[in-house]
Amino acid sequence: MHVSHSGRWDCLHFVSVSVLSLCLLIVGLSSQAHNYRARLDVAEWHLETSRLECRLWQNIPVYGDAIFRYKAGELQTFFLQSKRIVSPVGDAQIKVIAPDWLPGIAAHDVGVVGTQRGRVPVTIGAEMSAELLAELQEGMFPTIIHNGWFPEHEVKVDISSVNFKQAYQAYVLCLSDLLPVNYDQISRSTVLFDTDHWKLSAAMKGHLEMVAEYVNVDFSVDKIYVDGHTDDRGRKGYNWELSRKRALVVQDYLIKLGVDPNRVVMRYHGKRYPINTNASIRQRSRNRRVTLRLLRS
């Protein structure tokens, strides 16, 4: 079969154009961006409240959730929870834009934070979170732009202020009732006693009140272990009884504060388990103690 030079050129031209078109298509796909925002008719703010944690969030259709969270004993954070895993790591731009019904207000930058691989690609600290809440109260739309599902892919998430104010008022009420501590902060603690003493001081009572308030809210705490100890001075039998009195007074005060007696396990050990060597006044003072350990089921 004979193919003319003209036919060969047409063939090569077709192949070249096809390859070029394919390359342009690939480049176009790799550099594309996706924008996610709840429509006005479906934008809704959700609230989850307890004395342990307050959550205020908006579902972003297809993308996932935008969440403000304030845990007891910690600072507020904001984070995006994506339905898809974000693979590339980079920076997220935080901006604020005006909705269409607030013309004449220019968009402005809030800051930049690093992203993480996974389903929580963006987490924002207390100061910037508070700024985003303030902008939402003014009717503005916080916008987060972060790396997407593959290299050169960008995701833009707009958070709607529609229906925000009423939910935010309930969120603020929740914050005012948060406990001062969380489980990690209260699960291990110690009260110290003076030599030959077992009565509770005002400071000790204050600490035990905080423990009782916590366990009376967090029902995942199954047991509270109360262990009494002494230093090495004194007779063995006397120290054994002294450690019992110390553990007993702590147990009784917790029960007085409303803690279920079945959740309290009281033990006493005399001088058997020192945490210091008893070689000095300061070291002995750390051994005259009752320890409290919370255990979740």
Q: What's the helix-strand series?
A: HEEEEEEEEHEEHHEHEHEHE
- Reading side by side through the largest sheet, how are the strands ordered? 1-10-9-6-7
CATH architecture of the largest domain: Sandwich
Number of strands: 14
Number of domains in the coordinates?
A: 2
CATH class label of the largest domain? Mainly Beta
End-to-end CA span = 83 Å
Instruction: Name the average pLDDT.
Output: 90
**Contiguous uncertain segments of 5+ residues:** 1-30
Strand content: 25-35%
Taking all Cα atoms into account, the compactness measure Rg is: 31 Å
How much helical structure, as a percent, in the residues?
25-40%
Main beta sheet: 5 strands, mixed
Name the structural class: alpha+beta
Number of helices: 7
CATH topology (level 3) name of the largest domain = Immunoglobulin-like
Shape: elongated
Describe what you observe in this structure.
There is one protein chain. Helices cover 33% and strands 29% of the residues. By secondary structure, it is an alpha+beta fold. The chain folds into two domains: 42-176, Immunoglobulin-like (Sandwich); 183-296, 2-Layer Sandwich (60s Ribosomal Protein L30, Chain: A), CATH 3.30.1330.60. The protein has a five-stranded mixed sheet with strand order 1-10-9-6-7. The protein has a five-stranded antiparallel sheet with strand order 2-3-4-5-8. Helix 5 packs across helix 6. It starts with a helix and ends with a strand. Mean pLDDT is 90; it is low at 1-30.
Quick structural summary:
By secondary structure, this protein is α+β, with helices and mostly antiparallel strands. The protein has seven helices and 14 strands.
